[in-house]
Design a protein that fits this description.
The chain has 97 residues and is of the alpha+beta class. The chain contains 3 helices and 5 strands; from the N terminus they run ααβββββα. The longest helix has 20 residues. The protein is elongated, with a radius of gyration of 19 Å.
Length: 97
Amino acid sequence: MITDSLKKKDISKKLSLKTGFSINLSKKLTNELIQIINSNIKLNHLVLKNLGTFKLLTKKERMGRNPKTKQKFLICARKSISFIPSKNLLKKINKIV
């Protein structure tokens, strides 16, 4: 099953099929995993060996411009996430393609 986006319920179904766990247990495991990842990223960064590194970026407030109307507006300060894939993951992806 290849789609443009992967949903939590898709992950839960695949986990259930591969492990033999019930779908409810798979949903709980998926939710817990995502919650653990979120809480660790909030602490600044998360390194998952053989997958990659998630980093929390803090962006400052700045002036932006609508390219169509040339009208200026203020872009608020916000947080963003950066993902840097591991070398192993890149090697695996490049072998498949």
